[in-house]
């Protein structure tokens, strides 16, 4: 049974930062640090901000969800495309 579970849910592997140093993917320092130290990270999509809800409710809701996640000891990693780059984590833009 242990072997079966090991194959279904393998131990997460930390990917070296250089794998994400491409000009296409940018991961925030906060998310990279959490992954490096084995802290929990949850991926969030950015659709709610771009066209899921009207402004300003979209941004308020997205920030509220991130706060709930942080309050539970998890790092939120909102994923979106900005200026042709896949962005993972919090960015001021």
TrEMBL record:
<dbReference type="GO" id="GO:0016798">
    <property type="term" value="F:hydrolase activity, acting on glycosyl bonds"/>
</dbReference>
<keyword id="KW-0378">Hydrolase</keyword>
<dbReference type="InterPro" id="IPR007342">
    <property type="entry name" value="PsuG"/>
</dbReference>
<dbReference type="Pfam" id="PF04227">
    <property type="entry name" value="Indigoidine_A"/>
</dbReference>
<dbReference type="GO" id="GO:0005737">
    <property type="term" value="C:cytoplasm"/>
</dbReference>
<keyword id="KW-0456">Lyase</keyword>
<protein>
    <recommendedName>
        <fullName>Pseudouridine-5'-phosphate glycosidase</fullName>
    </recommendedName>
</protein>
<dbReference type="GO" id="GO:0004730">
    <property type="term" value="F:pseudouridylate synthase activity"/>
</dbReference>
<dbReference type="GO" id="GO:0046872">
    <property type="term" value="F:metal ion binding"/>
</dbReference>
<keyword id="KW-0326">Glycosidase</keyword>
<dbReference type="InterPro" id="IPR022830">
    <property type="entry name" value="Indigdn_synthA-like"/>
</dbReference>
<keyword id="KW-0464">Manganese</keyword>
<keyword id="KW-0479">Metal-binding</keyword>
């Amino acid at each position: 049974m242990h072997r079966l579970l090991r194959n279904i849910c393998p131990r997460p592997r930390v990917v070296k930062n250089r794998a994400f140093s491409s000009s296409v993917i940018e991961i925030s320092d906060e998310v990279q640090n959490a992954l490096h130290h084995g802290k929990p990270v949850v991926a969030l999509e950015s659709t709610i901000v771009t066209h899921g809800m009207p402004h300003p409710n979209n941004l308020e809701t997205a920030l509220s969800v991130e706060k709930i996640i942080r309050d539970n000891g998890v790092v939120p990693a909102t994923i979106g495309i900005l200026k042709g780059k896949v962005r993972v984590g919090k960015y001021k833009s």
